[in-house]
Every structure is written in C-alpha cells, then in structure tokens.
Amino acid sequence: MNSSPALRARIDQQKNESANGIVFQPEMPRVESVVTKLAKGHALFELNEPCLGEPDLIQIVPVELMTQEERQNFELPEAPAGWPEAGSRAMQRMLIMDEASLVSPWVVIQNGLYRYHAAAGAAISVQIMIAEYLACKVSWD
C-alpha cells in the first residue's frame, strides 16, 4: 500500500465506517467484468459456445442477501433443455451421469471456494459460486 498511493486512495474511497463496522462498496463494473470473463470461459469450455457479445443478464449477490427461495433456485438449476453440442465437455458429463441426476451437476474446482454450472437451452447460462459467499449468474439469450 505504501508503494501505491493510487491503490490506497481507491480502497479508501470504497470504505464506509459506521457503528456496525467497516463496509466496502465494490466497484461493480470491475466485478461484473471479471464475472463475465469467467462465465464466457466456462461457456466456451463446457458448452463449446463462444459468447462474444455482452450478456443479457448479470446477477451478482452475496448469498446472505438471498431469500431461501432464491438460494434454492440458484443451487438447483434447471435441467438442460436438450442435448449439449456433440463433443463438448457438457456432453461428456451428461453421458457419464447416472439416471438419478437429470440436472447437470455443479463443477467443483475447489471445494468451498469455487464452483460453477453451465447450461445451454433457450439461453446460455453460467452460474458461479465464489467462496460460498458470492452467487453469480450470467446469461446470453
């Protein structure tokens, strides 16, 4: 921090102190940019779907601010509307799933830290959970 006064100033600008403690307001355009890049990568890798344009929907919500219904809907994404593209990772995963699981499973990168779910149907949809704290959903119609 001492070697970067500009970074220090940006952090101080986002900090709000109150009787309840310190709260930081994130720079949402930067957060949305990172989440969108992650979602584009997952859509391409899992679904073989290049999402070149801007997404039609970006939702980024701390889990503790979600209602129980919102959390359940997030945790149990809809079943795929059809078969994924032949040769895609999603197709490979679908072929090895057991019959008890009709919903594509979450791909867990690091337990408790990062997982995602990608699905193609009427829309390309990618859901990401970061540190079991931040729920993100990005979709392209």
Describe the structure concisely.
The protein is an alpha+beta fold.
Element layout with pairings:
Layout: H1 5-14, E1 15-18, E2 21-24, H2 28-47, E3 57-62, H3 68-75, H4 89-96, E4 107-110, E5 114-120, E6 124-130, E7 134-140
Antiparallel strand pairs: 1-2, 3-7, 4-5, 5-6, 6-7
What does this protein look like?
- The protein is of the alpha+beta class and 141 residues long.
- It has one domain (27-140).
- It contains four helices and seven strands, in the order αββαβααββββ.
- The strands form two sheets. Strands 3-7-6-5-4 form a five-stranded antiparallel beta sheet, with helices on one face. The chain has a two-stranded antiparallel sheet with strand order 1-2.
- A hairpin with a 2-residue loop joins β1 and β2 (21-24).
- The chain is globular.
- The mean pLDDT is 84.
